Every structure is written in structure tokens, then in C-alpha cells.
Amino acid sequence: MRLNRKEFLTTVGRGAAATVAVAGLPELAAAQAASTGNPPKAEVQGAAIKGTTAAVRQFIASSSLASMPPAVVEQGKRCLIDGFGVILAGSAAEGSHILRQYASRTAGMKQATVLGKEPLVVSAAHAALANGGSGHALDYDDTQLSSTPDRTFGLLTHPTTPALSAALAVAEQVGASGAQFLEAYLTGVEVECKMCESIDPNHYERGFHSSGTFGVFGATAAAAKLMKLTDRQIEHALAISSSLSAGIRVNFGSMSKPLNVARAAENGVFSAEIASHGFTGGDDGLDGPWGFFQVLGGGADLGRLVGALGKTWSIVSPGVSFKPYPCGSLSHPSMDAMLKVVVDNDLKPEQIKAVRLRAGRNILDPLRYTVVKTELEAKFSVPFLMSAIILRRRAGIREFTDEFVSSPEVQRMLPKVTGVRDEAIERLGFDKIRSTVEVDLVDGRTLVQKADERYRGGPDLPFTREDLHGKFADCASMVLSDAQAKKALAGIETVDQMKSARDLVRLLAPGRA
Questions:
Q1: What is the pTM of this model?
Q2: Are strands 120-122 and 112-114 parallel, antiparallel or unpaired?
Q3: CA-to-CA distance for 220 and 188, rounded, in angstroms?
């Protein structure tokens, strides 16, 4: 049962006891789900939440690659291909360079590798920080999908980057096998996704950046798995991470958006590391009136978490989406619609008088920049995203540069493009990305194209193997030669057969000292 913030405050105001008990421990909750076919319900006695820490701890401790369905393992490898590609490409970003310099200046232990043209070897936590920042620097990493309409499409997490960055760093640190690395990564993604979808959607709507606030738990789960923490240590690590969970949306369009994800990866490794040495956190850090879910979300739907972890894996159902463009996913169907108009009518920029993107606030509010000065702002700008398609008929990593954003041709086109809030589209709901592109031509015609509600790169229109390999090759070309990229790709696809995850690192960072 979900308790919203208003109900919580009302209950507290009445002075009622603040305890909610999940129907038994995770074992009983799972049994209930199996026997009834329904997820377990919480019994309300006040406004707290109980049982979530135990459920997450048990899943982390018991998950194993051998018991994961083949579809989960296969999709995990596809996500790793996408994730490693965007880390390599993102390592060339200015913000990533600053994080690399920070990691280099503060380097002490030589435990794990920061990927990039000039690989660094630093502490595991700093490697997770730097690789996590690179993974989200271009806003090109995968996106968690929602399973029900009340969880807004595109506003959950970028699940791979935190879990991958933490798992890679710790796997290299402890000398884990490729299979153990993959197991930890998949465990982290499942924890991150299920926790994120459980919290009241108000968490994101109030301005929290869930890739940061939940990415830390994916990273913690992955690190705890590889460090072989005890049950009690896992619970402490989760409580520590509850204090370190952070990220707000005001930083979208700046270097601090990827920093939210970078810190999530670093803090996950840090939480697991200090917990392994006896550092403690509060009992049941996810539970109770002062626990994570109540404090940061004002409530949670426990049936999406307790008894649900690993039952249907979020990575395959409802799945994740791969981004066709390195920018906010909410813009992608609209960009595809704009591309269709341009290509089908062979439009030249000088033929276009005005463009209107009609959409709901779920799209227009995050894509808030009308005046664009940097490529980071451009990722959240309707005028730029439409302009790039009009001018280049593509919007890839080579279009998202400060030079292109500030070019005369872009700056001339920007004022012609506007976003229009459409009440009819908004009334349809936010479970899909819905929009319509209207293009006024100088000859007096108006061309209209409705965006496809099926997200290209999502389960309804998935990337083919060739699509995914092509994206990896394009991203990896920022760092690796064609031959190196092919070897790295082959290594990712067979990572579970590698005796050591360090072998994969050597393929991804051939220049490593």
C-alpha cells in the first residue's frame, strides 16, 4: 500500500503510532505472492514502512547468475554494450575531464581503472566516480521503463551507469571473474529499478533526480555483492547509502546532472567498503517514519518491491530503453517525427518559417531551455533539438558540442522553434511520450507529424544487434581504434566466460599503464 505525504503528515498530526508491517519477512512475502498471484500488501497501522531493508538485503545476498533467466543475462550484456559505449564517449566531455583530474590529484590506492583515452588507475571509489560521470556525461545511457501509467515514462532512472561503474571498479579491485561482475551488475540494476518504481512518484515530481537518489542503491548492491558482505553489513551499507542518496533536477543542463550519477556510483562503493570494516548505519535504513522511503518520497508502494525482486526482472519486464540520441529521452519521439518531416519532404532549412512542438508538461517542463548557450543546456532544449534535426538531419555526439550550439546557423534557427503545451495531449496521460510536430513553410503550407508513441530503442521498437553495435562503435571511436573497439565488443558479449573481469578492463583500456 502506498502512503502519500499528505496521509503521512495527517497521521502524524493525530499522534497515531507509526508502524507498518509487511506481511512477514521476505520469505513469507514471497510465499504470499506465489500463493495468491498478487504482490504482498502492507498492513497500515500508522505511517511508517517496514520490511523493505530485509527484502533488499536478502535479494542481494541470495541472487546468483546461475539462477537468472537467460533473457535477463542476454539483456544484461546488451545493456553493458550500451553502457560501456557511452562511458567511452562520455570520457571526452569537459565535465568528465574535471572529474578525472580530481581522481588523479587525490589518488592513493591503485585499485581500479578510469576508462578513457588516457586511462588512470585510482581507488575503486574514485574509479566509480569518474566512470559514472562519463557514463552520464552525454545523457546517452539507458533508461528504466515504467510498468504502470502512474509512473511517468522516462522519469525513473538511468539504471546501468551507477551499477556498472561500481561493479567494474570493485570487480577489478577484488579480482572477480567476469561472471561475478555480470552477476553484481544485474543485481544492482534490479535493486535500483524496483526501489525506484516503488517510491511515490511525487519523489521525482518534487525535483529529486532519481538516477542519483536510487543509483546509489544499485551501486551499493553491486559493490556489496562483490565484496561478499554479510547480511548485517549489507543492511548497514543500505542505511549508509540512505544518508548519501542525493541529486536534484535543478542541475539538469549542467555538469552536475552527471555528477548526481557519478556520486551515486562512488557512494555505493564507499558505503559497501566502510560497512565491510564495521561502520554502522541505523537499523532498517529503508523503513520507518525516518527511513529512506518515507523521508525522501512520502511513501511507497511496497508490492512493487517486497516479494517482487527477481520475480520478474525489471531489465526485461517492462525493460529498459536504449537512447538513439544523446539527450533527454522525452524528446526522442519528437525528434524522430521532425526527422520524418524533413526527410519525407526533403526540406531545406531556408524553407522553414516556424516549428511548433505540441506536447504535455511531462515533456516541456524538463526540456526547459529556450535560450541555449552550451551543449549541456542543448540536451534539454526543444528549440535546439528540433534545429539540429533540421540542419543536420541527425543529432549525435558530434552535434552536441558547444561549437555547433553557438554556430550562426543554429542560433538563427532557434527562434523559429517553440514548445506549445497541448491540453488534449496532456489529458491522455504520461505513460507514453506523446507529441505532435507542426512545421510552417515559407510557401504557406503546414506539415503535421504525430510522434510515434512506441519509443525507438524501447521494447516496442528495440535496437537490433546491428543498431546496438553501431552505437557502440560510434561511441568507442572517441577513444579506441576500430580494431580495439571490435575486440572490446567481443569481450563484453562473452564477459561471463572470462576468468577475470580485469581481462575486460584491458580490452576497454588498452592504453592502461
A1: 0.87
A2: antiparallel
A3: 7
